[in-house]
Protein backbone atom coordinates (compact mmCIF):
# COMPACT_ATOMS: atom_id res chain seq x y z
CA UNK A 1 0.00 0.00 0.00
CA UNK A 2 1.06 3.63 -0.48
CA UNK A 3 1.29 4.12 3.29
CA UNK A 4 3.65 1.15 3.65
CA UNK A 5 1.04 -1.23 5.03
CA UNK A 6 0.35 -4.65 3.55
CA UNK A 7 -2.99 -6.22 2.70
CA UNK A 8 -3.34 -9.99 2.45
CA UNK A 9 -5.00 -10.98 -0.83
CA UNK A 10 -5.72 -14.23 -2.68
CA UNK A 11 -6.95 -15.06 -6.17
CA UNK A 12 -8.40 -18.32 -7.49
CA UNK A 13 -9.55 -19.29 -10.97
CA UNK A 14 -9.56 -17.49 -14.30
CA UNK A 15 -12.04 -15.46 -16.28
CA UNK A 16 -14.35 -12.68 -15.13
CA UNK A 17 -12.91 -11.20 -11.91
CA UNK A 18 -15.27 -11.32 -8.94
CA UNK A 19 -13.89 -9.26 -6.08
CA UNK A 20 -15.27 -9.93 -2.61
CA UNK A 21 -15.11 -7.26 0.14
CA UNK A 22 -15.85 -8.58 3.62
CA UNK A 23 -17.57 -6.78 6.46
CA UNK A 24 -16.62 -5.61 9.93
CA UNK A 25 -14.97 -8.11 12.31
CA UNK A 26 -14.55 -10.88 9.75
CA UNK A 27 -11.92 -11.46 7.08
CA UNK A 28 -11.64 -12.94 3.61
CA UNK A 29 -12.22 -16.53 4.78
CA UNK A 30 -15.88 -15.63 5.29
CA UNK A 31 -16.22 -15.90 1.48
CA UNK A 32 -14.93 -19.48 1.25
CA UNK A 33 -18.29 -20.96 0.23
CA UNK A 34 -18.50 -18.45 -2.61
CA UNK A 35 -14.92 -18.82 -3.85
CA UNK A 36 -15.15 -22.62 -3.76
CA UNK A 37 -18.26 -22.45 -5.91
CA UNK A 38 -17.32 -19.72 -8.37
CA UNK A 39 -13.61 -20.30 -8.97
CA UNK A 40 -14.43 -22.84 -11.71
CA UNK A 41 -16.10 -20.12 -13.79
CA UNK A 42 -14.50 -16.88 -12.66
CA UNK A 43 -11.42 -15.35 -11.09
CA UNK A 44 -12.25 -14.93 -7.40
CA UNK A 45 -10.32 -12.23 -5.57
CA UNK A 46 -10.49 -11.72 -1.80
CA UNK A 47 -8.48 -9.64 0.65
CA UNK A 48 -8.36 -8.87 4.36
CA UNK A 49 -9.26 -5.36 5.36
CA UNK A 50 -6.54 -3.38 7.15
CA UNK A 51 -6.23 -4.45 10.82
CA UNK A 52 -8.23 -7.61 10.04
CA UNK A 53 -7.03 -11.17 9.53
CA UNK A 54 -3.60 -11.40 7.93
CA UNK A 55 -3.27 -7.76 6.91
CA UNK A 56 -1.10 -5.37 8.89
CA UNK A 57 -2.48 -3.19 11.67
CA UNK A 58 -1.52 0.44 10.99
CA UNK A 59 -3.59 2.06 13.73
CA UNK A 60 -5.12 4.54 11.26
CA UNK A 61 -7.05 4.75 8.00
CA UNK A 62 -10.42 3.48 9.18
CA UNK A 63 -12.68 5.96 7.40
CA UNK A 64 -14.41 5.07 4.14
CA UNK A 65 -12.07 7.21 2.05
CA UNK A 66 -9.03 5.24 3.22
CA UNK A 67 -10.81 1.89 2.90
CA UNK A 68 -11.98 2.76 -0.61
CA UNK A 69 -8.41 3.63 -1.51
CA UNK A 70 -7.34 0.23 -0.17
CA UNK A 71 -9.83 -1.42 -2.53
CA UNK A 72 -8.48 0.68 -5.39
CA UNK A 73 -4.93 -0.43 -4.56
CA UNK A 74 -5.97 -4.10 -4.57
CA UNK A 75 -7.64 -3.77 -7.98
CA UNK A 76 -4.57 -2.00 -9.33
CA UNK A 77 -2.04 -4.44 -7.83
CA UNK A 78 -3.90 -7.47 -9.17
CA UNK A 79 -4.66 -5.82 -12.52
CA UNK A 80 -8.42 -6.26 -12.19
CA UNK A 81 -10.71 -4.98 -14.96
CA UNK A 82 -14.41 -5.44 -15.82
CA UNK A 83 -15.01 -6.78 -12.32
CA UNK A 84 -18.10 -7.84 -10.46
CA UNK A 85 -17.69 -6.26 -7.02
CA UNK A 86 -19.43 -8.16 -4.22
CA UNK A 87 -19.61 -6.47 -0.82
CA UNK A 88 -21.06 -7.67 2.46
CA UNK A 89 -22.26 -5.24 5.13
CA UNK A 90 -19.49 -2.65 5.59
CA UNK A 91 -17.92 -3.99 2.41
CA UNK A 92 -20.94 -2.81 0.43
CA UNK A 93 -20.45 0.68 1.83
CA UNK A 94 -16.78 0.62 0.84
CA UNK A 95 -17.86 -0.13 -2.72
CA UNK A 96 -20.16 2.91 -2.75
CA UNK A 97 -17.35 5.18 -1.57
CA UNK A 98 -14.86 3.56 -3.98
CA UNK A 99 -17.07 4.39 -6.95
CA UNK A 100 -17.43 7.97 -5.82
CA UNK A 101 -13.66 8.42 -5.37
CA UNK A 102 -12.28 6.28 -8.17
CA UNK A 103 -15.05 5.89 -10.73
CA UNK A 104 -16.15 2.67 -12.42
CA UNK A 105 -13.54 2.11 -15.13
CA UNK A 106 -12.50 -1.21 -13.57
CA UNK A 107 -16.01 -2.32 -12.61
CA UNK A 108 -18.84 -3.90 -14.62
CA UNK A 109 -21.50 -4.57 -11.99
CA UNK A 110 -22.21 -4.80 -8.26
CA UNK A 111 -23.77 -7.16 -5.74
CA UNK A 112 -24.52 -5.52 -2.39
CA UNK A 113 -25.28 -8.04 0.36
CA UNK A 114 -26.73 -7.18 3.80
CA UNK A 115 -25.40 -3.70 3.13
CA UNK A 116 -24.63 -1.08 5.78
CA UNK A 117 -26.07 1.56 3.46
CA UNK A 118 -27.14 4.27 3.00
CA UNK A 119 -27.17 5.80 6.55
CA UNK A 120 -28.16 3.97 9.72
CA UNK A 121 -27.80 6.64 12.42
CA UNK A 122 -30.85 8.47 13.73
CA UNK A 123 -30.55 12.19 13.00
CA UNK A 124 -32.95 15.06 12.42
CA UNK A 125 -33.06 14.27 8.69
CA UNK A 126 -32.90 10.49 9.16
CA UNK A 127 -35.56 9.88 11.83
CA UNK A 128 -35.92 6.17 11.08
CA UNK A 129 -32.29 5.46 11.96
CA UNK A 130 -30.92 3.85 15.10
CA UNK A 131 -30.34 5.99 18.20
CA UNK A 132 -26.64 6.89 18.70
CA UNK A 133 -26.80 5.73 22.33
CA UNK A 134 -27.32 2.15 21.14
CA UNK A 135 -23.96 2.17 19.40
CA UNK A 136 -22.20 4.07 22.18
CA UNK A 137 -23.27 1.52 24.80
CA UNK A 138 -22.25 -1.33 22.54
CA UNK A 139 -18.77 0.09 22.01
CA UNK A 140 -18.39 0.66 25.76
CA UNK A 141 -19.11 -3.03 26.39
CA UNK A 142 -16.32 -4.06 24.03
CA UNK A 143 -13.64 -2.63 26.31
CA UNK A 144 -14.84 -4.98 29.07
CA UNK A 145 -15.39 -8.31 27.29
CA UNK A 146 -14.95 -8.20 23.53
CA UNK A 147 -14.62 -11.99 23.11
CA UNK A 148 -18.07 -12.46 24.64
CA UNK A 149 -19.55 -9.82 22.38
CA UNK A 150 -18.00 -11.43 19.30
CA UNK A 151 -19.38 -14.82 20.30
CA UNK A 152 -22.84 -13.43 21.05
CA UNK A 153 -22.83 -11.37 17.85
CA UNK A 154 -21.78 -14.35 15.73
CA UNK A 155 -24.82 -16.23 17.00
CA UNK A 156 -27.01 -13.18 16.31
CA UNK A 157 -26.07 -12.94 12.63
CA UNK A 158 -26.79 -16.58 11.72
CA UNK A 159 -29.82 -18.85 12.13
CA UNK A 160 -30.84 -21.12 15.02
CA UNK A 161 -29.86 -24.08 12.83
CA UNK A 162 -26.29 -22.88 12.37
CA UNK A 163 -23.76 -25.14 14.10
CA UNK A 164 -21.83 -24.04 17.17
CA UNK A 165 -18.65 -24.71 15.21
CA UNK A 166 -19.60 -22.19 12.53
CA UNK A 167 -20.54 -19.62 15.15
CA UNK A 168 -17.13 -20.09 16.81
CA UNK A 169 -15.41 -19.79 13.42
CA UNK A 170 -17.08 -16.44 12.74
CA UNK A 171 -16.23 -15.19 16.23
CA UNK A 172 -12.56 -16.13 15.76
CA UNK A 173 -12.41 -13.92 12.68
CA UNK A 174 -13.40 -10.99 14.85
CA UNK A 175 -10.72 -11.90 17.35
CA UNK A 176 -8.18 -11.62 14.52
CA UNK A 177 -8.94 -7.88 14.23
CA UNK A 178 -7.57 -5.25 16.60
CA UNK A 179 -10.01 -3.75 19.09
CA UNK A 180 -9.02 -0.11 18.39
CA UNK A 181 -9.66 -0.70 14.69
CA UNK A 182 -13.03 -2.33 15.36
CA UNK A 183 -14.09 0.61 17.52
CA UNK A 184 -12.95 3.14 14.92
CA UNK A 185 -14.65 1.28 12.09
CA UNK A 186 -17.88 1.05 14.05
CA UNK A 187 -17.87 4.83 14.25
CA UNK A 188 -17.34 4.87 10.47
CA UNK A 189 -20.19 2.44 9.80
CA UNK A 190 -22.71 4.10 12.07
CA UNK A 191 -21.86 7.78 11.60
CA UNK A 192 -21.06 8.13 7.88
CA UNK A 193 -23.86 9.37 5.66
CA UNK A 194 -23.55 7.52 2.36
CA UNK A 195 -26.84 8.60 0.84
CA UNK A 196 -25.16 10.70 -1.83
CA UNK A 197 -22.68 7.91 -2.62
CA UNK A 198 -25.50 5.39 -2.93
CA UNK A 199 -27.71 7.55 -5.11
CA UNK A 200 -24.75 8.20 -7.40
CA UNK A 201 -24.26 4.55 -8.34
CA UNK A 202 -24.99 4.01 -12.03
CA UNK A 203 -23.77 0.45 -12.58
CA UNK A 204 -25.97 -2.65 -12.83
CA UNK A 205 -26.63 -3.55 -9.21
CA UNK A 206 -28.16 -6.52 -7.46
CA UNK A 207 -29.17 -5.83 -3.86
CA UNK A 208 -29.49 -8.97 -1.73
CA UNK A 209 -30.84 -8.83 1.81
CA UNK A 210 -32.41 -11.14 4.34
CA UNK A 211 -35.76 -10.35 5.90
CA UNK A 212 -34.43 -11.66 9.24
CA UNK A 213 -31.38 -9.37 9.31
CA UNK A 214 -31.13 -7.96 12.85
CA UNK A 215 -27.84 -6.11 12.30
CA UNK A 216 -28.87 -4.16 9.19
CA UNK A 217 -32.68 -4.24 9.13
CA UNK A 218 -34.09 -4.64 5.65
CA UNK A 219 -36.37 -1.59 5.77
CA UNK A 220 -33.55 0.68 6.94
CA UNK A 221 -30.89 -0.58 4.54
CA UNK A 222 -31.56 -2.95 1.64
CA UNK A 223 -34.96 -1.57 0.66
CA UNK A 224 -33.68 2.02 0.76
CA UNK A 225 -30.58 1.11 -1.23
CA UNK A 226 -32.63 -0.53 -3.98
CA UNK A 227 -34.89 2.54 -4.23
CA UNK A 228 -31.92 4.91 -4.42
CA UNK A 229 -29.95 3.09 -7.15
CA UNK A 230 -31.67 3.55 -10.48
CA UNK A 231 -32.36 0.27 -12.26
CA UNK A 232 -31.18 -1.94 -9.39
CA UNK A 233 -32.84 -5.21 -8.43
CA UNK A 234 -33.70 -6.19 -4.86
CA UNK A 235 -33.82 -9.87 -3.92
CA UNK A 236 -35.05 -10.61 -0.42
CA UNK A 237 -34.06 -13.97 1.04
CA UNK A 238 -36.80 -15.32 3.25
CA UNK A 239 -35.59 -16.10 6.76
CA UNK A 240 -32.04 -15.02 6.00
CA UNK A 241 -29.96 -13.25 8.67
CA UNK A 242 -27.08 -10.81 8.31
CA UNK A 243 -24.50 -13.51 7.53
CA UNK A 244 -26.53 -14.99 4.69
CA UNK A 245 -23.33 -15.61 2.72
CA UNK A 246 -22.77 -18.43 5.22
CA UNK A 247 -26.29 -19.53 6.09
CA UNK A 248 -27.82 -19.20 2.61
CA UNK A 249 -24.69 -19.76 0.54
CA UNK A 250 -26.31 -22.08 -2.00
CA UNK A 251 -28.96 -19.50 -2.84
CA UNK A 252 -26.38 -16.72 -2.96
CA UNK A 253 -23.96 -18.75 -5.06
CA UNK A 254 -26.69 -19.44 -7.58
CA UNK A 255 -27.40 -15.73 -7.88
CA UNK A 256 -23.70 -14.93 -8.25
CA UNK A 257 -23.31 -17.55 -10.97
CA UNK A 258 -26.22 -15.92 -12.79
CA UNK A 259 -24.54 -12.51 -12.50
CA UNK A 260 -21.30 -13.84 -13.98
CA UNK A 261 -23.14 -15.57 -16.84
CA UNK A 262 -25.08 -12.41 -17.70
CA UNK A 263 -21.94 -10.27 -17.68
CA UNK A 264 -20.02 -12.73 -19.82
CA UNK A 265 -22.88 -12.86 -22.30
CA UNK A 266 -23.20 -9.09 -22.59
Main traits of this protein?
266 residues; globular
Q: Can you give a write-up of this model?
A:
The protein is built from 10 helices and 7 strands. It has a 7-stranded mixed β-sheet with strand order 1-3-2-4-5-6-7, sandwiched between helices. The longest helix is centred in the middle third of the chain and has 25 residues. The chain is 44% helix and 14% strand. Strand 2, helix 1 and strand 3 form a beta-alpha-beta unit. Helix 2 crosses helix 3 and helix 4 packs across helix 5. It has a single domain, classed as Rossmann fold (3-Layer(aba) Sandwich). By secondary structure, it is α/β, with parallel strands linked by helices.
